[in-house]
């Protein structure tokens, strides 16, 4: 399982940083740090450790702008 | 004019806030009230930054009774205690509620509600009884969102006028901190009435769940955490009513006034409903139904280079930020073809409006249905007689009489 963040949608609400703090972080300007690793408008994660999947799923469900999705 | 020169104790300032907010944004973007009532923060970047730092700008709130002992006593004796949940709460506890409540307003829920929303809009128009002059605000937008919410919460239609009255009383409490003790006591009785009514519904849904929001809340589970209890659910419902009814009413009223002021836009969206979502977004930016969100300064910090002190109340002016020229080109021009992405009408950060999809769907459907039913809509009164209510913190039209030509 991996996840993808659509950087065109991400607006830095940072809900995800509370749900999966090991993965999502925003800098002092409120910008998702993963943005620096995005290719084009998307960031695609490496394969997730099983214990992180639940938190990322929560983050995807609760992102106010639906910028996060899980992919097999 | 400098912000100091506006007398905010007179209603006139609040019936048209545009000059006052523009003065704050351009003259003193971090304004401190002289009488210790806290701060007004207006620039887009500053508002966004403060909203992104709940550890500095928290959502700790005064109690619902407002320090009136008789009102507090009613709640203690007959009601359920006020507890922190979403908009009156902070991380880490806030996160638990946000997780449990997210599914009540999820994209799936909102899509499934669409036929119901459409039917309610049609029913409200049926109630016009074919009259050509109606008050768009009092007869359409005032009732439509509260019927949608009542349906979704599982309130039978016969009780929906009561529901609307509870909602109005709660909104008055949250917007009028200086209300008389007598009125506050009345509103507390109304609140307790609301609590008892919904406590019964909560028990019913526990026993036999249905397809409604209360059933989702009583069955909400996050692994390893206890389910929501009755006071928590009641507090969440109070939040839905305050945040969901009046704001949507005000968005719809303001959006219709914008269309009446811009007949070319009305004609354009009528001929292409696909433009309605863009109209809704630009209206959200332009109107900002909630003028500000309130925060408490947790420790001394600075905003845009100005020091703010701990314990101060900070109003983050969404309405001013949405008109900040540093963020939006020609911010005072209403243009449905601009890209208003990033507007803060729903707030920003972890408290971003949890019901934004429902609000957006209601706004879109309310217009689609009205356009289907009425071939022509025009203002029934002189433009200058259309006024806002003198309510600090919200954009709310008193009324909007229109002439309808039915299809």
Under CATH at level 1, the class of chain A stands as Alpha Beta
Oligomeric state of the chains? heterodimer
Q: Give the overall shape of chain A, derived from the CA principal axes.
A: globular
CATH topology of chain A: Alpha-Beta Plaits
Number of domains of chain B: 1
The H-and-E topology of chain A, N to C, reads as EHEHE
Largest sheet of chain B: 5 strands, mixed
Ends apart, CA distance between termini of chain B: 48 Å
Q: What is the CATH-assigned architecture of chain B?
A: Orthogonal Bundle
- Strand element count of chain B: 10
| Percent strand of chain A | 15-25%
Question: Can you describe what's shown?
Answer:
Chain B: Belongs to the cytochrome P450 family. Chain B: Keywords: Heme, Iron, Metal-binding, Monooxygenase, Oxidoreductase. Chain B: Pfam families: p450. Chain B: This is Monooxygenase YjiB. The complex is a heterodimer of chains A (72) and B (407). The model of chain A has no long low-confidence stretch (mean pLDDT 93). Chain A has a single domain (2-71), classed as 2-Layer Sandwich (Alpha-Beta Plaits), CATH 3.30.70. With 72 residues, chain A is of the alpha+beta class. Chain A has a three-stranded antiparallel β-sheet. Helices cover 25% and strands 17% of the residues of chain A. Chain B has a single domain, classed as Cytochrome p450 (Orthogonal Bundle), CATH 1.10.630. In chain B, a hairpin with a 2-residue loop joins strand 6 and strand 7 (306-308). In chain B, helix 8 packs across helix 9 (160-175), helix 13 crosses helix 15 and helix 15 packs across helix 17. The model of chain B has no long low-confidence stretch (mean pLDDT 93). Classes of the chains: A alpha+beta (72), B alpha+beta (407).
